[in-house]
Amino acid sequence: MRHGRAKSAEPARRVQTVSKPSVLVNLLQTLFAVVLGNAAYFFLAPFLPLARHRPFHLDLGLIVDFWFCLVAYGLIRTVRKRK
Asked: CB–CB of 32/76 below 8 Å?
């Protein structure tokens, strides 16, 4: 009887590393999308009476704010892919 690890029938998994510059770019894109989305929401909030956010509540205003951030992120990613 042999001691040690039994060999698995599965092939060895390759670990893919992520470069630090790409992580930094993703972080900056996300940060810019949140700032841009929140700026758009706060600029348009007076014109959206049903979508006013109350702090510490899950309401339509928070969902609309998130949607603005999501749209800003999508626009940023689209512009960066076209370059």
From this structure: yes
Q: With CA atoms as reference, report the closest residue to 65 among 82, 43, 32, 80.
A: 43
The H or E element that residue 12 is part of is none
Dist CA 35 CA 67 (whole Å): 13
| Closest to 44 measured CA to CA, from 64, 29, 28 | 64
State the Rg of the chain over Cα.
22
Question: pLDDT digits over 4-22, tens only?
Answer: 555 656 667 787 777 778 8
State pLDDT tens for residues 32-74. 999 999 999 999 988 888 888 778 888 888 899 999 999 999 9
